[in-house]
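P.,

For your records, the input lines for the assembly:
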Amino acid sequence: MTTKATTSRPDAADRGGDVRLTGIGKTYGSFTAVHPLDLTVEQGSFFALLGASGCGKTTTLRMIAGLEEPSSGTVHLGDQDVTALPPYKRPVNTVFQSYALFPHLDVHENVAFGLRRRGIKSVKKQVAEMLDLVQLGEQARKKPHQLSGGQQQRVAVARALINHPKVLLLDEPLGALDLKLRRRMQLELKRIQTEVGITFVHVTHDQEEAMTMADRVAVMNAGRVEQLGTPADLYENPRTTFVANFLGTSNLIEAEVDTRGGDDLVVRAAGGKLALPGARCSAPAKAGGKVLVGIRPEKISLTHADDAGSVPEGRNRVTGRIRSSSFIGVSTQYVVDCPACPEFEVYAQNIDRDPRLAPGADVVLHWDPAHTFGLDADQSVLAGTTGEAGIAEGGAA
Amino acid sequence: MAFAASLVNWFKRNLVVVAGLLTLAYLLLPNVVVTVFSFNRPNGRFNYEWQQFSTDAWKDPCGVAGLCGSLSLSLQIALWATLCATALGTAIAFALVRYRFRARGAINSLIFLPMAMPEVVMAASLLTLFLNMGAQLGFWTILIAHIMFCLSFVVTAVKARVMSMDPRLEQAAQDLYAGPLQTFLRVTLPIAAPGIAAGALLAFALSFDDFIITNFNAGSTVTFPMFVWGSAQRGTPVQINVVGTAMFVVAVLFVLAAMAVGNRRNRRKA
Amino acid sequence: MPTLTEAPPPPSPPAPEKKPPLRRGRWTPYWLLLPGVLWLIVFFAAPMIYQASTSVQTGSLEEGYKVTWHFATYWDALSEYWPQFLRSVAYAASATVLCLLLGYPLAYLIAFRAGRWRNLIMILVIAPFFTSFLIRTLAWKTILADGGPVVDVLNTLHVLDATGWLGWTSGDRVLATPLAVVCGLTYNFLPFMILPLYTSLERIDGRLHEAAGDLYAKPSTVFRKVTFPLSMPGVVSGTLLTFIPATGDYVNASLLGSADTGMIGNVIQSQFLRVLDYPTAAALSFILMAAILAMVTLYIRRSGTEDLV
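Structure tokens returned:
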């Protein structure tokens, strides 16, 4: 019944890289950092834990690494229960926030550290290969402080990967880099992950980073997993206002359920009627009940009020007046005042620009009902938005 | 006029530099005097007035009875006191920075108070204790006293260094298969080393130079500062200045060498 | 790995077994603290208590001492030695002020103006530490010697007339006067002022000076409104590190002063080591400690509130 026995099972190798968290939670005194949660990360996948600071994502990661002792629950790597193992006995390695490179050792020794601790004597070849993988072969004898941020980041990845861990944990690994470098390193990390095939668990507060890199994303808020899925699924079908706002931008309209006909749901908002597919409404929708109706800014078309007649039938429509517009190259972003929703955001592709669409113009916003989603009205509309109110709301939600 | 104005302007801009250098001169003047008078051939028992150039004292530094004996005793005490105070102080510093425990405030005060206490008070109270215990005053009582007052300074120096150390470095070591002992030896200790070295150096200087506490608790044992004190009453041999000058030169050379090594290492690595 | 060949047991659900503590060493901090703290308790704290009890004992060296709660010792000691107490505080305070006035420009110079000379000047500030302070203090006897160049210059400039009128010097002499003692104290404790000042000055971001200048502050205003307030931690710890040891010092008063410049340290020393009147010595030492702790507490509290203003 020992754990050793279970790890030596021949079929264990197949699932050896699965990370299985069962009822794992962490409390500090009366503060709950992570509410007990279950989570399985499949072997070989690139998994992201996404959330604002203080949402418990780093604590979750540290519990997998063994740097934090869970208050409840267990951590399994494959079939091995590692909950009681100290970090230095877990086949897991971490790329730390701001890297934690050993300042007194050079790059070569930093990378060789884990191998040496496991008693491997001839490390030269392995270290050289690993440094080549991260394109740092030339810098082996430099001290960490002599490297640029991007180079340090790659040393940190090399130092962890050389140990062939079952899981690589990345704690905001790109947080200290500037935007351009971050984009490059995102692709670079993705390449390395594909190349070595190790399970990556990546903690980030940057939703774009999570969506570009990860196969699956868990959005965390206030110590709970709000929603888990592929990036596209999370983006298209958010089930809470937090997810709707934290991943990209959503326009949320408070509405009242009118009728439920067939697959579609018809709601009333600010005098007009909007339709959405019943399957895309995560709230219980009884006639007369309240729901929040959401639509992404880029799904909306903008037509000048003079041309209102040209809008095809069957589309959801809302009228309003443009408050401001900003041109950002590939698109133009409008903020529209509507009775239904005070700050309606619309992103219009710059294909044919209508010069009449300027601040002050009356417009009709319309979109395909299939793109509409419905959320439970019992949550804060602002959860997950950036800005003071949003964070506070998010925390309270 | 323009010249005078620019002179006034220059002086205004560099006032702080001039004042600072004057202070530096004030600080170094006694050392210059000590050095110059190590080449003096005094007329009486006291070496306070310049008479005649001579290198006699440099040729025979141990020529005065008891001087070199007291010097070697002081070095021994300083060495042992440094060793013990550094070991004990480093342990305390790590405990204070890295762990949570009860009575933290009380222990912090216990560390702070010896530094905020006039030496004469500590010296007198320690002597009271030794007298009450009937302890034989001498080498051991001096050593005990020196470890006591050096301890706090070591704790402060090491604590500052350990506090500025990223705890993630130790976590990274643990993550990379280093057990607690390995983590301490391979990561914690090398990174804390400059702080420990600074604490040790400070302890050595404090112990070697201590007079007041030693004077109370030495009995008839004579350390180098006590030798100097005694000779100030009976007559100051030139050899005292020789020792003082040599110590100054050795200290400066030591620091310069350390800096040169550091510089070269940095340049080579760059 | 003796279990390598065993048949795989069915994966059992994680039993709520008792886990060994993950963080080793709930007791580790106590073990680390024990030797050093014990040392301080036995050789620092306990002696203080011993001393407190000695101060209320009566008896004689020959017959031994007993605790008789004889608080009159305190009264007698104070009434006899209050001039020395006052003198200690006055000398130490003067030396502290002088240290601040002399030390600040040098600390500022090292922090902001020294450039590549910074390290050298730092060494020159610290290096005298390694020459026995007694030897260096004796050197002041030469520097301030009667009829020496320093005294001659001061005489010619009639500075000694002014200081004589203030009671700091007497006649043509500097040695064996309060001025010599304060000069020696200032010299001895100057590095203790400079180092903390430098540490707090060095932490100041140079861009703050530029920002203040950009916001219409003259250099003197920059100093008053930005630099000096930010260096307050250094000023506070520097003055404490100077004032406390200076108050208890008796070396400078012995070597550079005269019988009229005796400080409280001199009294404690002679009571303890020569007169062997232990209760009086203990009482004096206790009063000194209490006085310093009271003054320091008051000072820290005041400077703490001023920091906020």
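Two observations worth noting. Residues 167 and 371 of chain A are 37 Å apart (CA to CA). The first strand of chain A starts at residue 19 and ends at 28.

Regards
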